[in-house]
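Dear colleague,

Following up on yesterday's call, I've attached the two folding results inline so they're easy to grep. Please treat them as preliminary; we haven't cross-checked anything against experimental data yet. The first protein's sequence and structure tokens come first.
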Amino acid sequence: MEICGTIDIKVPAKGRKFGSWKAWKSQWCEVLKNENRMIINIGPSKGNVTSCLAVPNNAIIYRIKSRTKAYGFGIFYAGQKEQQPCIFLAGKSETESQKWMKSIRDVLKPPTTNIKTTNEYTISIIDNEHSKAAGLTGLYGTLSVKSEEILVTDPHTGKIKVTLHWTQIQCSYLPLPAVSDDLHRVCTIRTNSKFKAGDGDLELYCAEADELHNELLSCPRPLPRIATTPLPPTPKDRQTRYDHWTAADSPSTTPPRRLLESRRMSRSEGDLKKFVMQHSAPTLRSAGSQQHLVLVPRCNDLGQKVPIGVYEYIPNVL
């Protein structure tokens, strides 16, 4: 005997010939291994078997959606386009249902005795619409957290079933369960638009869900690839502000003072004249040197001359 106990059972419509009830009913259930198939004995109490069901070894087990049972799961015949159910069962919590599911899976296909290493966790997906859209119905196995990706391998063959890249994962969290037995037993991975089924939640049952969650948070992820373009060539050093001047632009002689006094000037030139009258007199009387007033066309930072009438005052010491 592999597993036994009291559990809620519902017989599909096409298989009710071996059961007299049409809704969920608490029954004693025994799961046995018999050569190339599995035997499920059902009865109202232990030792009182009233029904027997043979299940082939290629049967598939996954969670179902029920209006009255939050933790229901079914055993389905494989190899058919539309999988026909053998029987439905439901525990009182996610932990109880997953315990039955694991035991039945081990009876159908015994796992290999591989020792788990660091960053490996035994998981079973809690099927929902998002996992079905991604083609992950009934997924279970060993989850490995790696720096490049997340892998789920088959516990019987060791082959990779699913590969999740970090770029497809938005975050992970531990949901608050409705039953205390499920505390720290469910870890939810939220996928983003890069996942094949888009945005959604993948709910994983794991006895070490808190450790799995911490591993997902602390695992170093690869840096995102950034498309780069070659840097532009280094521009030549800008020429000095006087490089563009010609001999005609740069005055070689000092403008006569009477020309400045007699010529009608613009407002900017008048301001310049006032500035010259206030500052040039003390400078010209300094002993030991002869100074001249040089008016130079003003340029901006790009070496371009500003409009006529704006000059710079540069003392020319001879």
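Below is the second protein, in the same order (sequence, then structure):
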Amino acid sequence: MRWIWLCLCGALFACNDPASSGFASLHGELTGADEVPTGSRATVIIEEVGPADRAALRVAEISQAATPSPQQFELSYQPVQLANGHRYNARARIEDAKGQLLWTTDQAYPITDNTQFLSLTLRAVKATTPARKALFDCAGESLEVTFNNTGARVAFRGAQWSLEHQPSASGAHYRGDGMDFWTKGDEAILRLDDSELRCQRPRA
């Protein structure tokens, strides 16, 4: 009877052990954000570093109420998602209650299956350029994008994405949260969930 009890206890602890369930935990802290407005949210993302013409593959994400630095976080992910020969980074941002980007990481923080702790440094975003909005028609679906001095916020299919500006040889390229958005003049290309839509600004 005692042997059965020990086996049951061992099974219980194994189920509660993240490693035994195939998950790992990335612990870390966000630094650089001293005064955080009430209602702000902090987001930490692990994603694959892929080519510029393909949407970034998100491995894991956590969003929590933002607090003044240093802010602690714990992000669970599955190491089996980190394919051999591929590169992965962690990035973070803090947005206010209206979705305005306040702080963001501006350097690469590599992730491997042995990474257990990261300190991510945020930099303040200077709102020097007024935000501007634009509407696009994407194969019959309406898309609204708000551009600011560091990126864009896209509203599409009842959801919103925060995108960061990317280097581009022609036009403007924005990426984030599994979405890529290119725009040049009145035309745009949207890539989301392995699908591509061509968009056009409605004619006045």
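For the second protein, one point worth flagging: Confidence is low (pLDDT under 50) at residues 1-20.

Best wishes,
A.L.
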